[in-house]
Each structure stands twice: as structure tokens, then as C-alpha cells.
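*** Residues and shapes ***
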Amino acid sequence: MLDLRTIEKRVNKGDVFFISDFTEFGNYEAVRKALQRLTKDGKVKRIAKGVYFLPKIHERLGIICPHAEQIAKAIAKRDKARIIATGSSALNLLGLSTQIPLKLVFLTDGSARNIKVGKQTIQFKKTNPKNLSIEHRLSNLIIQAFKAIGEKNVTQEQIDKIQTIIDQSNERELLYQNLKNAPVWMQKILSR
């Protein structure tokens, strides 16, 4: 029987989980109904169809919801898919933009889909394997950030910020190795 104690033994507060994580306690429909009851009682929160989280409560802020990237990573892990943040998401994650995008776009080799999370939308866009060939997260974020900015729009301030990020990482050599797979114009900017 699926109850809150069973969930708490498996899932940390604030973590994202799915119906399929608990099907050993009953068939899919039974688990769905149990999670529906727990959601109605406020013990579990529903993010989207089949996607839940165990509430983490802050004394001043109340319920702390998982952030969109955490949700996207959990879905990718469940689906055994790779994802890369693109556009304004990559810029925000690198600190090149303070704007939190309402639509987060991730390239994936999994299923293309949109998931509504509150006021935000997480979009998974199917892409070719070449775009996912670099498995290093920071390398991917830098490449996607440059793509979002565009070759003609890159400022010295943005280059300096990315250079600082590279210098502060403990993976500088790996980063530069991975960035050799980036478009030539990005390689020229980074080699300056």
C-alpha cells in the first residue's frame, strides 16, 4: 500500500517523482489514485500529469517548489534522455541574464513535449544526436548561451563573464577541449 511514509523513505523533500517510481506497490492506476489522495490531503503536490513532488516547507516562504531545471532533469532521467538548456535558459543559468524565462527550452533526444509548471512552460525539443554529443553541462551551457546571443551581438562584458566562469571552474582543460566542437566563430571569441 502506498502511503506518505513509503514516499518519504524513497524521496527527499523537494524532490520530483513519478507514478512509475512506485508501481511495485500496486498497478499504475492504484498508485495514481493513492497519489491523488495524498495530493488532495496536501501531503504531496502535483506539478503536471504524473509528475509530483514532496513539499519542502520554509518557515517564512512556505512551500518551496522544485525549479524548472530540476523538473526537466528528473523527466529526462526517467525517460533515459539527454537534455541541454538553450536560449534564455542557458543565459540565466550562466548568470548572463537575470531574467527568469517563462518558457524554458531544452534540446533532447527523448520525446518532444511541453509541460506547464505554474506560469512557466518547459519545452523539450527533439534534436539530432550531434547537438547532444558533448556530455559536459557547462560546455553545453556556454555554447547554447553564445548561440542565443548571436555572433554579431556578443559584448566584451559577456565574454569576460564567460571567461571568469571558465577560469573558476575546476574543469578548464575539459571545457576548452569540448569547446573545440563549438562553431568556429565561438572558438575565435574564446581564444582571444
Observations:
- The mean pLDDT is 89.
- The helical segments are 4-10, 28-40, 68-79, 87-94, 137-149, 156-168, 172-178, 184-191.
- DSSP finds eight helices and nine strands in the chain.
- Residues 15 and 53 are 6 Å apart (CA to CA).
